[in-house]
Specification:
Elements: H1 18-28, H2 35-54, H3 58-82, H4 87-112, H5 116-143, H6 166-190, H7 202-208, H8 213-225, H9 232-239, H10 242-253
Helix pairs in contact: 1-3, 2-3, 2-4, 3-8, 4-5, 4-6, 5-6, 5-9
Length: about 260
């Protein structure tokens, strides 16, 4: 199942794992496995990638980063095919992503002896990139009656859905707000008029999807595998410039 109606779907560069994720979700549909179990699996895959970086097994790192992206899509797919969407799963997924991102970049810093300041700057840039992509994507999903587990404004605790506990939602929402709040505020300040945008064309969303986490992890995996580990941190710092480029294009499309 897609997060958008068929007529509004775009080619998502970061969602290359979706076909395999659907196979995984459908195979688990009638089992006791839950989306949370799949989320735990992608956390383990991310940690395996980190262990491979430390030991300089860079092709294995690329494998586990791609596997992590596939499983990251599979937990949401499983929630949809089972009919069990939840805020618990949504926030746990996002919290796991940001913590793994930080650990992955710190590990790259460890094996390259790059500047820790530049590493943190790259992390900040990666998170802003992902936040811009998610901001536009959630606007589309809300506009065209797609998946609404993610909200444009995460400024209040949502009411727990059937099958989840409110106290879990409360705790995870607070953790999410601490980790993502600054990035959400920065992107909203940079392009607050996007929520009224009448048109976010498919070609534009495809371009912005290069900011998606799956594509970011793919780039990291490829750069490690081909011997470009020393360029990963500078690349993501430089690529953050395109945040302003995409916002500028969005404003030209919807003046």
């Amino acid at each position: 199942m897609s997060k958008l109606p068929e007529q509004n779907r775009f080619f998502d560069l970061s969602d290359y794992g979706r076909p395999v994720a659907r196979i995984i979700a459908n195979s688990l549909k009638n089992t006791a496995f839950t989306p949370i179990h799949v989320t735990i699996a992608f956390i383990i895959s991310g940690l395996m990638a980190i262990a491979c970086i430390i030991n300089h097994y860079y092709w294995a790192t690329a494998f586990f980063l791609v596997l992590k992206s596939i499983l990251d899509a599979a937990d949401g797919e499983l929630a949809r095919v089972k009919g069990t969407p939840s805020y618990t799963g949504r926030y746990l997924d996002s919290i796991s992503d940001i913590l793994l991102n930080l650990l992955i970049l710190i590990t790259i810093w460890y094996v390259t002896d790059d500047s820790i300041l530049y590493t943190l700057l790259a992390f900040f840039g990666i998170q802003l990139q992902g936040t811009l992509y998610n901001y536009y994507y959630v606007i589309l999903r809300n506009k065209y009656n797609g998946d609404t587990t993610s909200r444009i404004f995460e400024n209040e605790v949502p009411t727990a859905m059937k099958g989840e506990k409110q106290r879990n939602v409360n705790f995870l929402f607070k953790a999410y707000s601490i980790l993502y709040g600054l990035f959400d505020k920065i992107i909203y300040r940079l392009d607050k008029d996007a929520i009224q945008a009448s048109n976010l064309p498919n070609w534009f969303m495809t371009a912005v999807s290069s900011f998606g986490l799956g594509f970011q992890l793919l780039i990291i995996g490829i750069m490690l595998a081909v011997g470009l580990k020393n360029y990963i941190i500078p690349f993501f710092i430089g690529y953050s410039f395109f945040i302003l480029v995409f916002i500028g294009i969005r404003r030209l499309i919807n003046p």
